[in-house]
Amino acid sequence: MTRTDIQFVDLKSQYQLLKGSIDGRIQRVLDHGQYIMGPEVRELEERLESYTGAKHCITVASGTEALLISLMALGIGPGDEVITTPFTFVATAEVIALVGATPVFVDIEADTCNIDASLVEGAISSRTKAIMPVSLYGQPPDMDEIKLIAGQNGNIPVIEDAAQSFGAQYKGKKSCNLSNIGCTSFFPSKPLGCYGDGGAILTSNDVLAQAMREIRVHGQEKRYHHTRVGVGGRMDTLQCAIVLAKLEAFDWEIEQRLAAGERYLELLKAAAASAVVAPVVRGDRNCVWGQFTVQTDDRAALLDSLKAAGIPTAVHYPVPLHRQIAYQDSCRIAGSLAVSETVAERVVSLPMHPYLDASIQAAIVGAATGASLA
Ligand SMILES: Cc1ncc(COP(=O)(O)O)c(C=O)c1O
């Protein structure tokens, strides 16, 4: 039977729940009319500082802009290298290329799909100016191991690309506050999203925070006085207002995401004989399931079965970045990237959002595995 009621991400149900607050917040901005750098911008930054525990939050125009501004604030440019994973959304490497530096790719762990921390040290060169791990699918990688290596090799700055993991925890600390800099995205489908583009940088370093605030507004120290090259990178007041309204339900939504993830894992365990491999979460951290991504040997067959049942899917990501035309000749490959290449052929993301109910999840896993679970 084909179902038409299954959403990959359900923003309509979220709006129904939060309609009063979202509409009220938008109306307040329309009433005061400060669409650029209005009071909601700082209000949101303060809320995110206390949520993550980081000293400074700088809201910016997108997650991509958060990463770009971070590299600019660190003064990274031509001749420099930044170590990262090839198994991520393109923005992670794109910003490295945009500042004129070279992305250096190291392989991932087959089960979590996160950067393999044990391979990072071997990729360090005299040109390494930052390490940029990604908290893929909503789960932080082994940040302590990465920070230890960074510390032992001349205190290399570590930037967490937390675009998919806002709200996640690693050893009791919040994602975005796990290293020198954390960057997140408020793209609508992210765990904390706005109604357009938006993002934030979190850091406890006063000097970097000041540089980031200036770079965000064309490198100006005060109006029309430009002390460094910057970008037009502010987040709109209206988008900040929407995130503020969504924060009211965020803790509850994270609980729902964690519960939905657990249900998926149990359902997949119950269908143990199937060829669908469940994602793995390490015991010292959680995953807020920015994506719920399974693996299989026969992706075409799995995508076909889910499509036939009316279940929306996505592939995050089909081509690792060192195989992309834009990067294949301008990156440095540190060791084998065989795991990234294999995983890129195996992954399928299933619907995931806080409003997913148990019966729909049983139908999804049933369609994926052929098991009768309802
Ligand atoms: C891992 C990762 N990094 C960076 C970004 C870029 O964020 P944005 O779309 O807000 O620019 C995304 C967004 O999908 C992402 O998933």
Description:
- This protein has 374 residues and is of the alpha/beta class.
- It is built from eleven helices and 14 strands.
- The protein has helices at residues 11-32, 39-52, 63-73, 91-98, 143-152, 206-216, 237-247, 250-270, 299-308, 338-344, 358-369; strands at residues 56-60, 81-84, 102-105, 128-132, 159-161, 169-170, 173-174, 181-185, 199-203, 220-222, 225-226, 292-295, 332-333, 347-350.
- Helix 2 (39-52) crosses helix 7 (237-247), helix 3 (63-73) packs parallel to helix 4 and helix 9 crosses helix 11.
- The longest helix is centred in the first third of the chain and has 22 residues, at 11-32.
- It is globular, with a radius of gyration of 21 Å.
Keywords:
single chain, 374 residues, alpha/beta, four-stranded mixed sheet, four-stranded parallel sheet, 14 strands, 37% helix, globular, binds pyridoxal-5'-phosphate
